[in-house]
Amino acid sequence: MKQHARVYSDAKQYSCTHCSESFRCREILKSHMLKSHNEGTCFMCPICHKKFSWKCDLKRHIQRREGVKPYVCDDRSKCFCIAGEFRLHHLVHSDFKVFCCDLCGKDFKRPYAVKFHFKRCFDGVECDSIL
Questions:
Q1: What is the pLDDT of residues 70-105, one digit of tens each?
Q2: Is residue 76 part of a domain?
Q3: Residue predicted with more confidence, 85 or 5
Q4: Is 97 helix (H, G, I), strand (E, B) or coil?
Q5: Between 54 and 11, where is the model more confident?
Q6: Does residue 71 sit within a domain?
Q7: pLDDT value at residue 24
Q8: Cα-Cα-Cα-Cα dihedral sign, residues 83, 87, 89, 90
């Protein structure tokens, strides 16, 4: 819960020892140290030599490269290599709209749809009545 709360906080308590960058999460600092300063533990793809800060990210990368897609949708015959993508896809087949515009309250099934809507809503394109 503490880690999740940091996403909404402006506090950046993890600082890089090499530059002036600061981060909310230790995990993001770890990625920064590896990518920007070539410091820290890394996991490297044996095929393309791309570096990852986390073993699970390397595993996901390899699954994508190899086309491994163990999560199969029954309704549309779509396949996914990531469980989260599969769960998100299932929202298309349901009536649940779990993503909401903070400005007008309109609900959406997909996070990118609410982001697109929010930008238009914020500019007053879709929701003139709230501005």
A1: 888 887 678 888 888 888 787 777 777 778 887 788
A2: no
A3: 85
A4: coil
A5: 54
A6: no
A7: 79
A8: positive
The pTM assigned to this predicted structure is 0.48
Give the total number of structural domains in the chain.
2
What is the residue range of 11's domain?
A: 2-37
State the CATH number of the domain containing residue 21: 3.30.160
Residue 35 has which token pair? 């990518």
Query: Is 44 a member of any domain?
Result: no
Give the whole-angstrom CA distance, residue 114 versus residue 102: 9
Handedness of CA 95, 96, 100, 104 (dihedral sign): positive
In a domain, 94, yes or no: no
E strands in 5-50: 14-15, 22-23, 43-44
Task: Please state, in angstroms and as integers, the Cα–Cα distance from residue 41 to each residue in 34, 37, 109, following that order.
Answer: 7, 12, 38
User: Phi-psi region for residue 71, left (φ > 0), alpha (ψ -120 to 50) or beta?
Assistant: beta
Classify the phi-psi angles of 77: left when phi > 0, otherwise alpha if psi is within -120 to 50, otherwise beta: left
